[in-house]
Amino acid sequence: MDRYPYRRRPVQHNDRRQQREVGQPRLPLALLLLILLPGAARPATGGGEAHFDPGFLHKLSQPVDLTLFERPSPLPPGHYHLDLRVNGRPYGQGEITVKRTAAASTICVEKALLGMLPVKPQGINSAALRQLDDEEQCVTLPQLIPQSRIRADLSRLQLHISLPQALLQHSARDSISPLLWDDGVNALLAGYDSNYYDSRQGGTHYRSFYSGNELALNLGGFHFAHRGTLSWQPERGSDYNSLFNALQHDVTALNARLTLGDADTSGYLFDSFSWRGVSLASDESMLPDSRRGYAPVIQGMAQSNAHVSIRQGNTLLLETSVPPGPFQIDDLYPTGYGGDIEVTVREADGRESRFSVPYASLPQLVRPGNGLFSVTAGTLRNLNQPGSPKVIQGTLQYGVSNLLTGYGGLLTSEGYRSLLAGGALGTSFGSISLDTTTAQTRTGGRLRQGQRYRLAYSKVFINSQTTLSASVSQLSSPDYLDLSDAVQWIYQQKHPEYPGFGQLRQPRSRMSLTLSQRLPQTWGQLNVALLTQRHWSNDGQDHQLQAGYSNAFGSLAWSLSASRVRSRGGEEMLFALRIALPLGNTAHSPSLNMNLSRSNQGSGSQLGLSGSLDEQLLDYDLGLNRDEQQNSSASLATSWHLPATTLDSSISLGGHSRAWSAGLGGGVALVRDGLIFSPWYSDTMALVSAPGAAGAGISGYPGIKLDGSGRALVPWLMPYRRNEIAIDPLGLPQDVALRITSQKTVPRAGALVRMNFATRLGQPVLIHVTRPDGQGLPFGAQVSNTHGDPLGRVTQGNTIYVQLPPGLTHMRVTSGEQPLCQIALQLPVAIAKPGGIRQLNAVCLPMTARSLPNPNEKP
Question: Is domain 297-357 classified as CATH 2.60.40.3110?
Answer without folding.
Answer: yes
